[in-house]
Design brief:
- This protein has 252 residues and is of the alpha/beta class.
- It has a single domain, classed as Aldolase class I (TIM Barrel).
- Helices cover 45% and strands 15% of the residues.
- The chain has helices spanning 16-31, 47-54, 80-84, 95-100, 105-118, 130-134, 138-149, 155-158, 179-198, 200-205, 219-223, 240-251; strands spanning 5-9, 37-41, 59-63, 89-92, 121-126, 162-165, 207-211, 230-233.
- An eight-stranded parallel barrel has the order 1-2-3-4-5-6-7-8, surrounded by six helices.
- Helix 1 (16-31) links the parallel strand 1 and strand 2 (37-41).
- It is globular, with a radius of gyration of 17 Å.
- The structure holds 1,3-dihydroxyacetonephosphate.
- 1,3-dihydroxyacetonephosphate is lined by residues 9, 94, 166, 171-172, 211-214, 232-236.
Length: 252
């Protein structure tokens, strides 16, 4: 049995003051949802404040990115150790980082190995662009991102990895993938690739999320799918009622 998992990726939204307010408003209702692993991923400057507010709750904290090196002359970067001070999770390889900041399967893999080394639970994002989707390359792209991104990982650590399937054409567009399509990608592309890397038992233990225009209105359709174990939520994670409703839907 894979425990349902819901994470909110706030992206580049909320000052520290706004983050405090959002978490203050979310905390009680979110804490009351049992049976779901819940994670908030605010921007770096808010991690300290939010970690304080989440103390004593069962809500986890994640960063949206990190560098793979331990320290040194990497201006503007944040190390795994700096993330680990406050967080248990880290999002790696989000499509916006791949598209705008030069993230590649190789850099995702380096970061994943760094997460393994320091003991952070990674949320690794994969997904095809609109152009790739329209030219029927979903399978090739998602299989490659999975196999190269997750290579050289210890099978013992692998079961802790969370994979998020986020078709780029569905992110922030309001054009969510159908639940059937998302489930098919997870079942026919991602899990077989995970099985090749880590064996079938581990592949069946790894949580795979759907992300891309998930809302309170459509979340239950995804969670009803046998191979989808939760959601990586963008825009709707900034709204208390929406995010709580999505998390409740995952608990059912
Ligand atoms: P939206 O939910 O805003 O489409 O974003 C999805 C996403 O990119 C989460 O990482």
């Amino acid at each position: 049995m894979r425990k349902p998992f819901v994470a909110g990726n706030w992206k580049m939204n909320k000052t520290v003051a706004e983050a405090r307010e959002l978490v203050f408003n979310l905390n009680k209702q979110l804490s009351e949802v049992a049976g779901v692993e819940k994670v908030l991923c605010p921007p770096f400057p808010s991690l300290v404040a939010v970690s304080g507010l989440l103390e004593g709750t069962d809500i986890g904290l994640g960063a949206q990115n990190m560098h793979w090196e331990e320290k040194g002359a990497f201006t503007g970067e944040v190390s795994p150790g700096m993330v680990k001070e406050f967080c248990g999770y880290v999002i790696l390889g989000h499509s916006e980082r791949r598209a705008y900041f030069g993230e590649t399967d190789e850099s995702v893999n380096r970061k994943l190995i760094a997460a393994q080394k320091i003991g952070l639970t990674p949320i690794v994002c994969v997904g095809e662009t609109l152009e790739q989707y329209e030219s029927n390359r979903t399978s090739e792209v998602v299989a490659r991102q999975t196999s190269l991104g997750l290579k050289d990982i210890d099978p013992a650590f692998a079961s802790r990895i969370v994979v998020a399937y986020e078709p780029v054409w569905a992110i922030g567009t309001g054009k969510a993938s159908t639940a059937d399509n998302a489930n098919a990608v997870v079942k026919d592309i991602i899990r077989p690739e995970l099985a090749r890397l880590f064996g079938n038992e581990t592949a069946q233990a790894i949580r795979v999320l759907y992300g891309g225009s998930v809302t309170a209105a459509n979340a239950a359709e995804y969670f009803a799918q046998p191979d989808i174990d939760g959601a990586l939520v963008g825009g709707a994670s900034l709204k208390v009622d929406e995010f709580v409703a999505i998390t409740k839907a995952a608990a059912k």
